[in-house]
């Protein structure tokens, strides 16, 4: 039986954090759906570090098509959820459908992968995050704490059904652990 994976994102998603999980899941034979606020070609971005700068820089990267709008998602049709980072989380968390999507995966104990700035999305369901442990990009530490979770300093962390990663360099371990939860 092929697993069905939902990736929720939007414009300004970090390119590696959507392409790596998308293709890795396809490689496993999973049926993968990319959802965004509306069906469109999403503009990804590349986040990288430049010597002398205290934060990352952002450059336009590749386009990738979304397959369905958040409002049209029935989360019960999916076996796992991936939330990539970048800047997309700061606005997809405002979508009215997002809390219901998240609730389904956590209440049904289905695998959830959240990397980098995805913590901004998880923070919209504080009742489900309270008492959890996860990691995220360092700048998202206040979001993790604000929703009642414990920020983990490690670049990769698994707590119950949640696999979390610090940033794109952690994708190999992140996807290994996510796929392990699916099987």
From TrEMBL:
SUPFAM superfamilies: Class I glutamine amidotransferase-like
GO biological process: proteolysis
Statement: the UniProt record of this protein carries the keyword Hydrolase: yes
Gene3D superfamilies: 3.40.50.880
Family annotation (InterPro entries): C56_PfpI-like (IPR006286), Class_I_gatase-like (IPR029062), DJ-1/PfpI (IPR002818)
Domain DJ-1/PfpI, residue spans: 3-180
GO MF annotations, alphabetized: peptidase activity
Similarity-based family: Belongs to the peptidase C56 family.
Name listed for the protein in its UniProt record: Protease
Organism from which the protein derives: Siminovitchia fordii
């Amino acid at each position: 039986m092929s697993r069905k994976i939902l990736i929720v994102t939007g414009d300004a998603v970090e390119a590696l954090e959507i392409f790596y999980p998308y293709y890795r899941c396809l490689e496993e034979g999973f049926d993968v759906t990319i959802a965004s606020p509306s069906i469109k070609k999403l503009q990804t971005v590349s986040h990288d570090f430049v010597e002398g700068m205290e934060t990352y820089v952002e450059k336009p990267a590749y386009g990738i098509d979304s397959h369905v709008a958040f409002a049209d998602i029935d989360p019960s049709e999916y076996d796992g959820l991936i939330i990539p980072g970048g800047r997309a989380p700061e606005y997809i968390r405002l979508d009215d459908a997002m809390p219901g999507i998240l609730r389904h995966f956590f209440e049904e104990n289905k695998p959830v992968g959240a990397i980098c700035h995805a913590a901004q999305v998880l923070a919209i369901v504080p009742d489900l995050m309270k008492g959890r442990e996860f990691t995220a990009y360092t700048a998202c530490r206040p979001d993790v704490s604000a929703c009642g979770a414990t920020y983990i300093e490690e670049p990769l962390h698994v707590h119950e059904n949640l696999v979390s990663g610090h940033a794109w360099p952690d994708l190999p371990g992140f996807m290994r652990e996510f796929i392990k939860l699916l099987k």
